[in-house]
Design brief:
Helix content is about 20%, strand content about 30%. The protein is built from six helices and eight strands, in the order αααααββββαββββ. Strand 5 and strand 6 form a beta hairpin. The radius of gyration is 31 Å and the shape is elongated. The chain starts with 6 loop residues before the first helix and ends in an 8-residue tail after the last strand.
């Protein structure tokens, strides 16, 4: 003899739970979304296509207000591929260069020294415009005002492997140890590749 099974359990097991009383299934979520999109006016009628920028269109670089040099922007870029106006604005005129071993080059500009590896900028050293405290030195160089706790020595502060840079160094002033005179940033160290 078969035990009596409540009708609710049978309906659930057979998949009838949620069916309408007339036996038809409600539309799926995909069908509901398709119907909603079809009911909306098309984007082509509301906006001209020319106003929507293409994902492949490159917009020009514009240095943020208050920056002396945008080290995160310049780091890891090929020096030869940077726009001339960006190099002029941030680094100044090239004064001299020296080819170094293992495909490296040191380029001295009016406002900073740049080291390249295979033409790609990996290190930038800049004398600050004047003696600065930590937040000002970092902020005018393109970094956040607080990078966390640094490693402190008698001559410098250093952050390792932070903000997508291998090393960020601030050299202390001889006149006032609370102020800094030089920022030296290495995005990567070529010797670590070997």
């Amino acid at each position: 003899m078969v035990p009596a099974v409540p009708a609710l359990v049978v309906a659930f097991l057979l998949g009838a739970w949620g069916c309408s009383s007339d036996g038809t299934l409600p539309p799926s979520l995909i069908e509901q979304e398709d119907a909603r999109l079809a009911a909306r006016p098309s984007a082509a009628t509301t906006e001209p296509a020319a106003s929507v920028p293409s994902a492949r269109v490159q917009v020009g670089y514009e240095k943020r207000t208050g920056l002396h040099i945008d080290i995160p922007y310049l780091s890891r870029r090929k020096l030869s591929e940077l726009p001339a106006d960006v190099v002029q604005d941030q680094l100044g005129e090239q004064l001299r260069y020296e080819d170094l071993p293992e495909n490296e080059r040191q380029v001295v500009f009016e406002r900073a020294e740049v080291w390249t590896y295979d033409g790609r900028i990996y290190r930038i050293r800049k004398d600050l415009e004047h003696l600065m405290d930590i937040p000002t030195a970092l902020g005018t160089s393109g970094f956040p005002l607080d990078l966390g706790s640094p490693i402190e020595s008698t001559a410098e502060l250093r952050w390792n492997s932070t903000w997508n840079m291998r090393r960020i160094r601030l050299m202390k002033s001889r006149e006032d140890e609370r102020l800094y005179r030089v920022i030296d940033v290495a995005a990567f160290l070529p010797k670590e590749f070997f």
